[in-house]
Write a structure and sequence with these properties.
Helix content is 21%, strand content 17%. It is an alpha+beta fold and 149 residues long. It has two domains: 81 residues, no CATH class; 68 residues, no CATH class. The relative contact order is 0.10. Bound molecules: protoporphyrin IX containing FE (HEM). Protoporphyrin IX containing FE (HEM) binds next to helix 3.
Length: 149
């Protein structure tokens, strides 16, 4: 998240910004801060669903809810309006892949993240071994009965 001061101004904490100064929010670091998350560097696939179970499924911990510790889709009045679409699309795609394919890295261990400007991605160059699951036609979004085409 980046903002450029259109005119010289002073923020609520006293920080003075001259006209034209860029301000960048370190969303990556905040998303991984122990101020907001337990063991933030540990991959925990059920991190947020556990919170939802604990607090009730009012969706407060849902992927589309921006928060001070979750800036993936921004926050405030310019938070990403496409996040509802993006969240459903990502879940559908992941569910389809998991139900229809087995895949693993060609080597061992987790690959390092890749950074492009202010974006962080999985290693898009990592070799992946992909195999279609033979039982996939009945698993999810199946085509005709018994077909794996
Ligand atoms: C995983 C996918 C996506 C991510 C991580 C993402 C992330 C973000 C972030 C962080 C912002 C706020 C930028 C800022 O405040 O400076 C933003 C804004 C925006 N996003 Fe997304 N986005 C995603 C998908 C989409 C999609 C699918 C659409 C449209 C269909 C979309 C449309 C927009 C628009 C129009 C804004 C500007 C909103 C404004 O300035 O008021 N985004 N996005």
């Amino acid at each position: 998240m980046m903002r450029k001061a259109q005119k010289t101004c002073t923020l609520a904490d006293g920080t003075s910004l001259p006209q034209g100064r860029w301000v960048v929010v370190p969303a990556y670091s905040i998303n991984r801060s122990s101020q907001w998350h337990d063991e933030p560097e540990t991959f925990d696939a059920f991190r947020f669903s556990r919170l939802a179970e604990r607090d009730g499924f009012g969706n407060r911990h849902g992927i589309v809810i921006p928060g001070r510790g979750f800036l993936t889709f921004g926050i405030g009045k310019h938070a990403c309006p496409g996040r509802y679409f993006a969240a459903v699309e990502m879940k559908l795609l992941l569910a389809y892949l998991i139900c229809n394919y087995d895949f693993k890295f060609a080597g061992n261990g987790r690959r390092s993240d890749k950074f492009f400007l202010f974006s962080c991605s999985p290693d898009y160059g990592a070799p992946l071994i992909v195999k279609r699951r033979m039982d996939s036609s009945k698993a999810f979004l199946g085509t005709s009965e018994g077909s794996n085409a």
